[in-house]
Amino acid sequence: MAPSTNCLDHIIYLTPPGSVTETAEEFRQLGFNVLAGGQHEDGLTENSLVILGDGVYLELISFVKPLEAYPHGSPERSARENHRWAAKAPGWIDYAFLRYSSETVRIPDIINDRAVAGGDEVLYGDGTAGGRTRIDGQILKWIVTFPRLSAEGRRPPIPFFCEDVTPRDLRVPSLDTEHPCSVQGIAFLHLRVPLEKLDELARSFDYIIGRSSIHYEWQLSTDKSIAGHSCRLLLSVSDTKVLEISEVAFYVKDKPPADTIQTTYGKIRFVVL
């Protein structure tokens, strides 16, 4: 049996350089438990984590330093300038699915074969090694596979894939999943794109996730299920030229003071179980 290609792993929330501590405190004030993460092995970014009961986590991430902190012409400045998130505005910027592979099967190959069979270009390139060191010194290793750049030199807003080399429970510890705000897991991830990109992107999601029976809506799986409730990816038309994650919705047990809140850089919606 072919491995699942629709398992949501984590969602990334970017804030300005050096702001991880402040962002972690903001999410704590919203009722989320936040774990210290660590610095990525390239030394450019650092993070904190919010682990949810469904096994998905939020990665609260920022660059360690602003671009101007690196000398002109230095390798460090070049790496900072060319980082895949260097041009991203703060907010919900990216998301990852779990990647699996064996000696004979790799998820990117499955998806690329579907795209070619559908008359389109392949969606994913080769995987690259990544990792970070936790604040307790534990070294984490993984392989990430990113979408291929478009003709305009941009990455389409489809998920990248992450496969653990070290055990996943080191990267995603099942700690502090009982949050004061009673959040249980992800209800949906909502993307908005310009009208002229809508059908092209929908076709890509069909290749990645599988063809949906509901227009512009796809069912996702998670590492741990929430009985009777599904995780979804929603796609709708934006009134701007920006391709963006417009909001992330969470299942909660208790009715919150407000169904929708605006963080400093993003939108959150709560759905009562």
TrEMBL record:
Q: Name one Pfam family in it.
A: Glyoxalase_3
From the UniProt record, list the coiled-coil ranges: none
Q: Which Gene3D superfamilies match?
A: 2,3-Dihydroxybiphenyl 1,2-Dioxygenase, domain 1
Q: Which InterPro entries match?
A: Glyas_Bleomycin-R_OHBP_Dase, Glyoxalase-like_dom
Q: Where is the Glyoxalase-like domain?
A: 8-194
Name it. Glyoxalase-like domain-containing protein
Native species: Rhodocollybia butyracea
